[in-house]
């Protein structure tokens, strides 16, 4: 088995504009996804808005610069994730089809599991 | 056994390379579970054949000989490295690491479909799918693949390496898709083969109009798919389309290498054997389901069966495009339909259909729209406008032979 991180990208503006009905629908879809994934879903959550992010970057002279905001400013931002366990990419992608977004999309990234 | 001529055995090895590469590689991947290692072993097996066959004679089953040699080599290497699996194995379903006995097994399972579906996996970029197909299914070297697509060799090498890394790193499985996803996956494979064919049939840039190497590879691949998936209507349609289009190859390029368009082609030079085979396949494919390839092939068949350009059944062509627009709504199809309308119902009717597509962004840089417009305007006697249209087409065309053809038409106006 392998692990895949499903990164959910959406527009925060679209979320802010969504009414209760739309939000409820997405929640129902998440529930449906979680039911399908079952034990293959190792966990997942929504993230606080990108504006709450803090980025740390090594500055090349031994120091670290700490800045407000996400690494890359884009219209669609990382808004949540699932960590899945799947046999292969086909299975992971099939599961990821069910992860809802408000017009955004999801990215499936294989996790390189490191044994610390 | 009499010793065969060196030239004969070299030809036999080349023939086995063309026919058996995919089979040998697919069977070897089962042992190595690693594409790179399998490729290495298969290359060595072919090299071994070049020395062994002149001495021992060409084996009765070259594919089995090469498979045995490649698998033996793979087992040697795996034993030497003391690892049955590399760090990131390809996902070989029900994979058993073959023991020494298995190598000799005469009934090697035909794993070519697994290899096909891995090369044409939808999670790979299309250009990577095409490159892997030429590399792994046709056995072309990276340099040859680079030449085929007119890109520098390091660029192609990076593209292939990246695709292979994704196969291993993201665990793209080495298996046949389930029945449910099969039709969609087969269509993806057909697209790769079709793209290969069209790239060769109408080379987008360069000096030659037809890249025979690519066209031949695409036909070989379509035949292989047909053998592996004999009941698939998309595959039957694809092979039919390739045969019926390629049947005109000899008449399509003139004595000086210039492009000869359909109306002027010498139809006695068309390949009747290919046409007959193609028409049989079209019938079969259309009976099952009028797929995109089957309909395109049916259009080609109408042309191939017409005794002359004037006697083409243009209403039939329009009817086929009407169906095609439904299964494959694309501006290019609509453009071809407009051209057919121009022949079936006159240039004014064709122009009306064509001008509906005037703002289609997908056709903005497509030279054939300007060519078609020029032709219709020329037939309507609107010479000045025709000249503008041909001029626009000339600006958009990079193939030298097609440019020359356009320049001639401009001069003749």
Notes on the structure:
The complex is a heterodimer of chains A (116) and B (413). Chain A is an alpha+beta fold and 116 residues long. Chain A has one domain (2-46, 73-110): Dimeric alpha+beta barrel (Alpha-Beta Plaits, 2-Layer Sandwich). Chain A is 28% helix and 37% strand. In chain A, the strands form two sheets. Chain A has a four-stranded antiparallel sheet with strand order 2-5-1-6. A two-stranded antiparallel sheet of chain A has the order 3-4. Chain A is flat. Chain A starts with a strand and ends in a 6-residue tail after the last strand. In chain A, 17% of the residues are buried. The model of chain A has no long low-confidence stretch (mean pLDDT 91). Chain B is mainly alpha-helical. Chain B has a domain at 3-81: RNA polymerase sigma factor, region 2, helix turn helix motif (Rna Polymerase Sigma Factor, Chain: A, Orthogonal Bundle), CATH 1.10.1740.10. Chain B has 20 helices and two strands. Chain B has helices at 6-32, 35-56, 62-80, 100-104, 112-119, 126-137, 142-148, 153-169, 182-201, 212-228, 233-246, 249-252, 272-288, 292-305, 314-327, 331-345, 347-355, 367-379, 383-396, 400-412; strands at 91-92, 173-174. A two-stranded parallel sheet of chain B has the order 1-2. In chain B, α7 packs across α8 (153-169) and α9 packs antiparallel against α10. The longest helix of chain B has 27 residues, at 6-32. The N and C termini of chain B lie far apart (68 Å). Chain A: InterPro entries: Dimeric_a/b-barrel (IPR011008), YCII (IPR005545). Chain A: It comes from Motilibacter rhizosphaerae.
Write the layout of secondary structure elements.
The complex is a heterodimer of chains A (116) and B (413).
Chain A: E1 2-11, H1 12-17, H2 20-37, E2 41-46, E3 54-58, E4 64-68, E5 76-86, H3 89-96, E6 105-110
Antiparallel strand pairs in A: 1-5, 1-6, 2-5, 3-4
Chain B: H1 6-32, H2 35-56, H3 62-80, E1 91-92, H4 100-104, H5 112-119, H6 126-137, H7 142-148, H8 153-169, E2 173-174, H9 182-201, H10 212-228, H11 233-246, H12 249-252, H13 272-288, H14 292-305, H15 314-327, H16 331-345, H17 347-355, H18 367-379, H19 383-396, H20 400-412
Parallel strand pairs in B: 1-2
Helix pairs in contact in B: 1-2, 1-3, 1-5, 2-3, 5-6, 6-8, 6-9, 7-8, 9-10, 9-11, 10-11, 11-13, 11-14, 13-14, 14-15, 15-16, 16-17, 17-18, 18-19, 19-20
């Amino acid at each position: 088995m392998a692990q895949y991180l499903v990164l959910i990208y959406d527009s925060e503006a679209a979320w802010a504009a969504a009414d209760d009905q739309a939000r409820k629908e997405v929640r129902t879809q998440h529930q449906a996804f979680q039911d399908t994934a079952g034990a293959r879903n190792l966990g997942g959550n929504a993230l606080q808005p990108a504006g709450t992010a803090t980025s740390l970057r090594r500055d090349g002279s031994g120091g670290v610069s700490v800045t407000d905001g996400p690494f890359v400013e884009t219209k669609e931002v990382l808004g949540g994730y699932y960590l899945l366990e799947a046999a292969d990419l086909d299975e992971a992608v099939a599961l990821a089809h069910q992860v809802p977004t408000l017009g955004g999309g999801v990215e499936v990234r294989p996790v390189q599991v490191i044994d610390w | 056994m009499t010793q065969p001529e060196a030239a004969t055995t070299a030809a036999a090895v080349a023939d086995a390379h063309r026919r058996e590469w995919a089979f040998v590689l697919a069977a070897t991947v089962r042992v190595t579970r690693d594409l790179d290692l399998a490729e290495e072993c298969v290359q060595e097996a072919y090299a071994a054949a070049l020395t062994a066959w002149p001495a021992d004679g060409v084996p009765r089953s070259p594919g089995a000989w090469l498979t045995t040699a490649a698998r033996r080599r793979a087992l040697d290497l795996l034993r030497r490295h003391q690892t049955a699996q590399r760090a990131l194995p390809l996902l070989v379903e029900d994979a058993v690491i073959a023991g020494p006995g298995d190598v000799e097994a005469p009934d090697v399972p035909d794993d070519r479909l697994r290899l096909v579906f891995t090369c044409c996996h939808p999670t790979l970029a299309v250009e990577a799918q095409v490159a892997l197909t030429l590399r792994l299914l046709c056995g072309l070297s990276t340099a040859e693949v680079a030449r085929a697509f007119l890109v520098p060799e390091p660029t192609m090498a990076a593209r292939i390496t990246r695709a292979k890394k994704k196969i291993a790193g993201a665990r793209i499985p080495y298996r046949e898709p389930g029945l449910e996803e099969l039709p969609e996956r087969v269509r993806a494979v057909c697209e790769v083969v079709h793209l290969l064919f069209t790239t060769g049939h109408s080379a987008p840039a360069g000096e030659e109009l037809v890249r025979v190497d690519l066209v031949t590879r695409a036909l070989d691949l379509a035949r292989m798919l047909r053998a592996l998936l004999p009941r698939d209507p998309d595959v039957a349609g694809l092979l039919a389309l390739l045969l019926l289009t390629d049947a005109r190859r000899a008449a399509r390029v003139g004595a000086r290498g210039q492009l000869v368009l359909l109306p002027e082609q010498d139809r006695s030079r068309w390949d009747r054997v290919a046409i007959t085979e193609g028409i049989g396949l079209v019938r079969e494919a259309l009976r099952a389901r009028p797929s995109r390839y089957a309909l395109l092939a049916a259009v080609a068949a109408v042309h191939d069966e017409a005794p002359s350009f004037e006697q083409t059944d243009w209403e039939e062509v329009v009817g086929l495009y009407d169906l095609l627009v439904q299964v494959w709504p694309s501006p290019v199809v609509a453009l071809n339909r407009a051209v057919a309308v121009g022949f079936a119902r006159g240039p004014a009717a064709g122009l009306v259909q064509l001008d509906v597509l005037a703002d289609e962004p997908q056709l903005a840089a497509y030279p054939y729209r300007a060519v078609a417009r020029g032709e219709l305007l020329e037939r309507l006697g609107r010479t000045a406008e025709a000249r503008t249209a041909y001029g626009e087409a000339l600006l958009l065309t990079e193939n030298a032979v097609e440019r020359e053809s356009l320049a001639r038409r401009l001069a003749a106006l």
